[in-house]
Amino acid sequence: MAFIRASSPHDHAPLSTQRVMQYVLLATLPGVAAMSWHFGWGTLINIALASAVAVACEAAIIVIRRRPVIFYLRDYSALVTACLLALALPPLAPWWLVVIGTVFAIAIAKHLYGGLGYNPFNPAMVGYVVLLISFPVAMTTWVTPRELLPEGVSLPGLAESLAIVLQLPAAPAIDSFTGATPLDLFKHQSGQLVEQIYAGNRLFREANIAGYGWEWVNLAFLAGGLWLLFMGVFTWHAPVAMLAALALMAALFYDGGSSVSGGSPLLHLFSGATMLGAFFIVTDPVTSAVSRRGRLIYGAGIPGLYHPGLGQLSGRHRLRGVADEFRRPPDRQLHAAPHLRPG
Amino acid sequence: MSASGFDADRCSRLVMGGPMMGFALPDPEVPVIKTTNCLLAGGKAEMPEPPPAQPCIRCGLCSEACPASLLPQQLFWYAQAEDHERLEAHSLFDCIECGACAYVCPSHIPLVQYYRAAKGEITRLAREKEKADRARQRYEFHKARLEKAEAEKAAKREARRKAAEEAQQRKKTATDKPAEGGSADDIIQQAKAKAAIRKASPEQQQAKLERGLEAARNRLRVAEHELQEARDQDAGQEQLDTFAARVEEARRKLQAAEEKLQDFVDSAGVNSGGDKSAGAEGGGGSPADDTAKKLDDTIGAIERRIAKSRDKLATAEAEGSDHIDALKQGLKKLEAKLADARAERDALSDTSREDSH
Q1: What is the CA radius of gyration of chain A?
Q2: In chain B, what residues touch A231 (CB-CB under 8 Å)?
Q3: Which residues of A touch B23 (CB under 8 A)?
Q4: What is the mean pLDDT of the segment spanning A82-108?
Q5: How many angstroms separate the CA atoms of A307 and B22, rounded?
Q6: Nearest to A1 among B28, B42, B59 (CB)
Q7: Cβ neighbours of A286 in B, within 8 Å
Q8: For residues A95 and A161, what is the distance between their CA atoms, to the nearest angstrom?
Q9: Are A7 and B24 a contacting pair at CB < 8 A?
Q10: Do B20 and A7 touch (CB under 8 A)?
């Protein structure tokens, strides 16, 4: 009779790293859907490309490290990294941008430190920062939302998107549908009253709260995040702390719409990658605080470090922005174009 | 167990106790004891093999589950690193091994096993340290005890030596009375007198001299034997010369020993004769007379020795041996001794003559 000689406990919660990662991926679906609707095929292509590269890269590295490949691939962590990075990149980014970012994220930011659980920084965000520093123009070329395109222009279809991404000679010109992000616009036009900025840009005119298209994306990510909260994948402390601190900082620097104000809290909360950051980046267990109180402080500290209000006061946005981004920037648009930031 | 439908083939794990803190049994031959609360026979689906552990993703669920409010995550990292100090700082021994942390861990890390192993290691090291400490204590005490014994022995030796010195001091002050004055001659005479007193008894001295004579005889015999052997074996001329020289030396030493013994016997005989006569006179005669008699005997002995050495010198000069210088020096010393003894004798006789006047 050979019974298993195992150590207590003899039961286990139906929770595993695999399951956690799968939930995270599921939770991004609404956001992905919203982005694909407004910005076209680019997001999906990004995700597909990044995922493929990530899995291949991780498999290669695990083989080099002489570990069991399937066992380590099965925890879905590479896919999650790829997905988050792909969502952070502009939809029609060239393929090499995605590949470089992903390889850097997986190989250097994750495995060089020891693999899952040993990385000090979120790999997706490290990849993002590397790309931002190296290719600032490519990283700030976003797409205009579908409804805001001029008459006769439509978002490229699948084949065209692929052509653009792969930078084939047959690709159509992209100027007709590229555009800035809401906060980019805001930054560009300092000196104008907020009302004027809002009046002068379709992106804001057609919007309900914070920039057309973007608000939907953020709301979708918010929904996904709330679902994760409900499923118990993480606790409320970090996301709530971050959003609250962001709103607070925005409110502090918003004086009702003058030319030097920094945008309303709603704008900040629902534009750019705020929700993505709050529910998917800040809550990354490996790189965030462990205790609940720690998570509160951690979440609150992030907006405090590089809010544009603060950025306006000091001259060193670029340096601080890059350094902070290394951790987990919730709102990448805040420093998307550092050289264009006022002050 | 068969009464409840236990099927050993389908059972994957047999647990005595609850699912969280019970322990797995190797086989059902283990008896039920007083503290057995329940038996769990889990099938493969219910209690599968524990899956391999994945890396810790630092989710913190373990800390939230811990009923003792410990930090299982920290304990895990330190247990992996075998950092015993930090483990104790994080209250590893407050862990009740309930298994809640391992239950919720998404990476299936066997946390409780890590803590048990760490606890065992720390306890073992503590016990070994205690043993080592005790052994060291015993060793130090042992060393101290030996040192103390040594010190006591040395102290006793010192005390004995001091006591002997004091005794001699007292004796010295006793014999100092007749010879007062600080001249060099007096000191020398005092020293000689002391030596005379400190000497061993006559019988002992004679025995010693006889022993020396025996030894010299033996040595001569051995040397002659060696020489004979060398001759028989037809050794080289150098070797023969060496052996011959040794034989010669042995002979001389034997002669010296014989003479010493002879002198001693003579002086002792004269002494004993003198004593006897003194005793026959009925204990008469002052200490000065005894000293005078001794000196007379000494003078006589020395004179005999001088005569002998003069003979030797003559023989040596006749043979032309190498020992001429040594013999001459010896002769000179003897003559000096004779002169000293005569002077002493004269001085003593002068004083005794003065006393008697």
Answers
A1: 21
A2: none
A3: 8
A4: 93
A5: 53
A6: B28
A7: 57-58
A8: 11
A9: yes
A10: no
d(CA A97, CA A142): 14
Looking only at Cα atoms, what is the longest distance across chain B?
Answer: 139
**Which range, of A128-137, A154-163, A299-308, averages the lowest pLDDT?**
A299-308
Provide CB contacts within 8 A for A244, sequence distance 6+.
A300
Return the SS3 of A171.
coil
Would you place residue A306 in the very low, low, confident or very high pLDDT band (cuts 50, 70, 90)?
A: low
B319 pLDDT band, cuts 50/70/90, is confident
- Tokens for A239? 């996301």
Measure the N-to-C terminal CA separation of chain B; round to a whole number of Å.
Answer: 133
Structure tokens at A71: 């066992």
Query: Does pTM surpass 0.90?
Result: no
Element (H, E) at B111: helix B111-176
Chain A contacts of B27, Cβ < 8 Å? 1, 3
Q: Which among A5, A12, A17 is the nearest to B57, CB-wise?
A: A17
Is B227 within 8 Å of B243 (Cβ atoms)? Answer: yes
Place of tokens 């405090």: A304
The residue ranking higher by pLDDT, B270 or B16, is: B16
| C-alpha distances out from residue A198 to A183, A217, A260, A269, Å | 11, 19, 14, 16
Alpha-carbon distance A58 to nearest alpha carbon in chain B (angstroms)? 15
Min Cα distance A115 → chain B (Å) is 8
Instruction: Mutation target for A interface from B44, B107, B112, B114: give the one with most A CBs within 10 A.
Output: B107
Smallest Cα–Cα separation from B295: which of B168, B154, B196? B196
CA distance B124 to chain A (A): 20
Q: First CA to last CA across chain A, in angstroms?
A: 77
Q: The tokens of A111 are what?
A: 């495995």
pLDDT confidence of residue B86 = 93
pLDDT tier at A338 (50, 70, 90 boundaries)?
Answer: very low
Could you read off the pLDDT of B247-289 as tens digits, one per residue? Answer: 888 888 888 888 888 888 787 666 554 444 444 444 444 556 6
Taking only the tens place, the pLDDT of each residue in A243-288 is: 998 888 888 877 766 666 666 777 777 777 888 888 998 898 888 8
> What DSSP character marks residue B48?
-
